[in-house]
Amino acid sequence: MVEPVETPPVASEPDRDDLLVVENLQVHFPIKRGLVFDRTVGHVKAVDGVSLRVRRGSTYGLVGESGCGKSTFGRAVLRLEEPTGGTVMLDGESVTGLKGEALRQARRRMQMVFQDPLASLDPRQSVQSLMIEPLRVHQPAPNDQLVARAAEMLELVGMPRAALAKYPHEFSGGQRQRIGIARAMILNPELVIADEPVSALDVSVQAQVINLLEKLQREFGLTYIVIAHDLAVVRHISDVVGVMYLGQMVEEAGSDDLYAQPLHPYTIALMSAIPIPDPEVEDRRERILLRGDLPSPANPPSGCRFHTRCPYRQPTRCDTDEPHLREIEGHPGRRVSCHWAEQIASGEVQPMDSLVVEAVAAD
Ligand SMILES: Nc1ncnc2c1ncn2[C@@H]1O[C@H](COP(=O)(O)OP(=O)(O)OP(=O)(O)O)[C@@H](O)[C@H]1O
Ligand code: SF4
Ligand SMILES: [Mg+2]
Fold first, then answer.
1. Phi and psi dihedrals of 165, rounded to 5?
2. pLDDT-based confidence at 118, cuts 50/70/90?
3. Atom 3 of ligand 2, nearest CA residue
4. pLDDT tens-digit profile of 200-215?
5. Phi and psi dihedrals of 175, rounded to 5?
6. Predicted confidence (pLDDT) at residue 261 exceeds the cutoff of 50
7. Own/partner pairs for 339-346, CB < 8 Å, 24+ apart?
8. Could you read off the pLDDT of 3-24 as tens digits, one per residue?
9. Ligand nearest to the CA of 4
10. Residue nearest to atom 4 of ligand 2 (CA)
11. What domains lie within the chain, and their CATH numbers?
12. Rounded mean pLDDT of 39-43?
């Protein structure tokens, strides 16, 4: 068997089309003990060496189970969380070392949309006051101009001007998300990181919010990172999808390629759990089960971090040698962190029989 050749963590050379370039980003939270929490006894490696590039005007979907570090990654890119290592470049300039006014300017260019964006804000503030708050900080102007801009943004997201006088609790989840998006857009950002933007919404409303994000992207040339734990949510909106596991990227590919043929065992297992609307295909499908729980990011398993749950695990290399993201021959634009990606692609390495079950058709 040919030993795979390791390539650097980022696939291609940076170019002017990349709005965001993240190299080897780390966020390690100290675990404190002692009477006054003065002893560091370890670190939660929430993000542990993630590299990616996002092309201007494109959408990057970031997926993975709860706790794999997606939100921490998004927050660290925006410097809402201080990275403990690595670099973030926005439009060719490092964001990592910025301070004061320069950091404030960079923050204006990058905005975050949360699951329920108004929930984290003061419920006693009216929509008008919530909307113009970022403008007051970044682009002060007479009040009537700020209000006019807020009304314009609401219109853009399909909300009436009258919403300005109301309070967050007076709106449905979908409407609140629209207002949250309008608030994030008010400063004319270039990069929007949407963290689980539709997870709290009904399926029908999810589609409307996704459509709204796509419309805004077309109109303003926005670049998105859309974070979700559900692969189905990011499928249609994303140009590129990255899959995270325990603080690291395990697979990255063009969205169509990834969904057509996932190559990392973790992606394969996640993908096999998505119901397919065609009942005939659904009946023939096999589901690959993941064993056990997600290990702690404070104490990740040796070798391949996924080996404790991997249906394709091979003795003993998987337990001892750490795989790194590498390009896979015959799959341009794809990076996979598995020693056996080629053999899995060719069918030479198969999942353990006991972990393959018939898919249960969704009713
Ligand atoms: N401020 C913090 N201090 C210590 N640990 C943290 C902190 N924030 C997050 N973590 C830990 O870092 C890991 C990654 O958390 P994060 O919220 O980024 O995951 P996630 O992928 O966004 O999960 P979810 O899908 O549930 O939102 C988790 O183990 C979490 O408990
Ligand atoms: S390296 Fe081994 S344990 Fe890790 S994903 Fe590949 S087959 Fe599974
Ligand atoms: Mg999260």
1. -85, -5
2. confident
3. 307
4. 899 889 999 999 999 9
5. -65, -40
6. yes
7. 339/4, 339/304, 339/314, 340/312, 340/314, 341/4, 341/263, 341/264, 342/2, 342/4, 343/1, 344/263, 344/265, 344/268, 344/312, 345/261, 345/263
8. 444 444 454 555 779 999 999 9
9. 2
10. 304
11. 18-120+190-260 (3.40.50.300), 264-363 (no CATH)
12. 91
Structure token digits, residue 159: 């909300």
Residue 67 CA to ligand 1 center (angstroms) comes to 5
Q: Which residue has the least CA distance to atom 1 on ligand 2?
A: 338
Q: What is the pLDDT of residue 13?
A: 58
Q: Candidates 250, 251, 268, 340: which one to mutate for ligand 2, based on the most atoms within 8 Å of Cβ?
A: 340
Question: Which atom of ligand 2 is least distant from the CA of 321?
Answer: 1
Show the ligand 1 pocket: residues with CB < 6 angstroms: 29, 44, 46, 64, 66-72, 229, 297
* Residue from 244, 316, 318, 343 whose mutation best tests the ligand 2 pocket (most atoms within 8 A of CB): 318
- Give the model's pLDDT for residue 8: 45
Give me the residue label for tokens 């993630």. 50
| Angle (CA) 121 127 133, round 5° | 65
Output the CA 23–ligand 1 centroid distance in Å. 20
